[in-house]
Amino acid sequence: LTLLLVYVDDMIIARDDEAKKLALKEKLAAQFEMKDLGKLKYFLGIEVAYSKNRIFISQRKYVLDLLKETRKLGCRTSTVPIEQNHRIGSEESAPVENPQYQRLVGN
């Protein structure tokens, strides 16, 4: 089984057979300009760490970057981020246009 993940100009090749993985990398390098960055550490804001038998993924760096950007890095944590049944606005009110909020929540 070979996994090939591509996002814009980033690519991950995963395969349990190292020789076949290298052969695939050579074929791709013959067709495309490529640079091998070694063992995967970050991809799309996801940090990758390895132990002997496991792979761990975390979005810690991504979350810290969001907290820095919104100047919330030193804030206290809360089990519930907003009071229950909180009304932001009436149903008749116009939608809020806030590009920073939309980008942060992935809209």
TrEMBL record:
> Region (Disordered) spans which residues?
84-107
Supply the Pfam families for this chain.
RVT_2
Residues of the Reverse transcriptase Ty1/copia-type domain: 4-83
What name has this protein been given in UniProt?
Reverse transcriptase Ty1/copia-type domain-containing protein
